[in-house]
Amino acid sequence: MHYDINEKEIIKRIKTIKKKLGKELVILTHHYQRKEIVYLGDYGGDSFALSRQAAMNNDARFIVFCGVNFMAESAEILSQPNQIVQIPDLDAGCWMANMADISIVDESWEQAVSVIGEDKITPVVYMNADAVVKDFCGKNGGIICTSSNAPEALKWSFKRREKIFFFPDKHLGRNTANRLGIPPEEVIIWNPETPFGGNTKEAIKKAKIILWEGYCLVHTRFQVEDILKMRNKFPDAKVVVHPECPQEVVGAADDAGSTSFIVNYVDQAPAGATIVIGTEINLIDRLAFEYPEKKILALKHSLCPNMSKITLQKLLWSLENVGKVNIIKVPYKIKKGAKKALDRMLTL
Ligand code: 13P
Ligand code: SF4
Questions:
Q1: CATH number of the domain at 7-93+307-329, please?
Q2: Tell me: the pLDDT tens digits for 293-312?
Q3: If you measure from the C-alpha of residue 218 to the centroid of ligand 2, how many angstroms do you get, rounded to a whole number?
Q4: Does the 97-217 domain belong in CATH 3.40.50.10800?
Q5: For residues 124 and 143, is the Cβ–Cβ distance under 8 A?
């Protein structure tokens, strides 16, 4: 698929289709989409807000999701049976989600449970995971979380059982544990490539939180030195980062939170403020464009190639073939458990 027309013409055609379909169509856009796509969407947001929109928009027949696969899958799980969810590029995956393959997750869970006992541990799965891992979570009494509600999800779990196995982002897990004041010696890393995650049985028994060895390559590029350099150059600047960054980076920043938290942070800052942001570059570029009265700077240029796979051309193609191409359909067998785990998050 390739349209030999300029961007202006593509946008015009997209708007015409949108007008024609009216309420039958909802376009959801994640904050990491380039701004031209965000401006064509009906709702923009972080992964929590978008899953809520998917669950609420019962009138639309078509949901076109501009984001990555795990987000579109979650939208499909939360949508009604008569709704069709599409993604403009089926190859828009997530590196972090790929780090938690279900067969290895299952095996690791069995090993952990054999040491601790099933009634003592809850799986908490970050939204950035495949539907089948969400299903595993729901079936084992667990809950999904996003970066905007991870502390609440951990508290929810601790009320039920004494330990947590957190998948797949070790950094979000660690940063959330720090926020809740859980001592570092009660948090261990589970390396799925080694038996028992590379831990002794004693260490597993002692741990309050087990963190899966997964991470985001976009956010682990940020380093404390980047923050020091920026503070040196802009002494009055505030630094805000996403909690997928390593704990040292979060510790050196002024604040950390989800993509919506970052948007809000910029919005609330007074005119003239300098804000240095550690997250995906498309969001930072859009904020710099929307808040010219504030100095919005990137901690470092870091782009998510998966988010960038969604282009205006592909969005137009999806809309011209609405209901027919790139349909996301989560098999019923894994939908049930995944929905249970997502619903638990939505009622937090
Ligand atoms: P948010 O939930 O903060 O939007 O983050 C999603 C994500 O993939 C960050 O890398
Ligand atoms: Fe996945 Fe990282 Fe891209 Fe977010 S920024 S979608 S975690 S690869």
A1: 3.40.50.10800
A2: 999 999 999 999 999 999 99
A3: 6
A4: yes
A5: yes
